[in-house]
Amino acid sequence: xxxxxxxxxxxxDAEVAHGHLCAGQVLGVRLAMLGLQKLxxxxxxxxxxxxxxxxxxxxxxxxxxxxxxxGCRLGKRAVKFRDWGxxxxxxxxxxxxxxxxxAARESSKDLARSLHPELANKNQQQMLAYRELPDExxxxxxxxxxxxxxxxxxxxxxxxxxxxECGEGxxxxxxxxxxxxxxxxxxxxxxxYEESGDRIIG
Length: 202
Ligand SMILES: [Zn+2]
Ligand SMILES: [Zn+2]
Known about the structure:
CATH 3.30.1330.130; 2 domains; two-stranded antiparallel sheet; binds zinc ion
């Protein structure tokens, strides 16, 4: 299996998409390329375009690079964010049902430092080392099972439900039943914002 793009090519794309080249880009490109390699997905923008859903466990630099390599986008419902603060991602092949989780090893940072003590800058040390180190030293990988209900699939279609409280539309079965009422998650108590004024209509 030969990926459609090489690591330097993906790195270039990642730099453009992310705005700068950093250690996180190198790590993210490697992490995602390893995941795709395990799943034998070599053309995520072409023939394999609809095969992949990616769970990411952190929102940092590397996350952008993972999107670039996989072609998975939040707006295509192909990215699932689990805010766990961990440098890890799980790649799910919708065609085969296989899934692999790849996590950066804690030891990779120390390795980077010991590999390039001549560089004063930590980012420079890591950028170089993350290019050179073999996959096994950078990452741990594990085959996993991901139960993906129909509403999590990118192409899921269903009618939109209206919240009985605020009247806003809810897609993808995200509504909640509470005391016989159908509510959005905000009205059901999961609101991440406080209302600090009247709703302005129109
Ligand atoms: Zn960055
Ligand atoms: Zn509501």
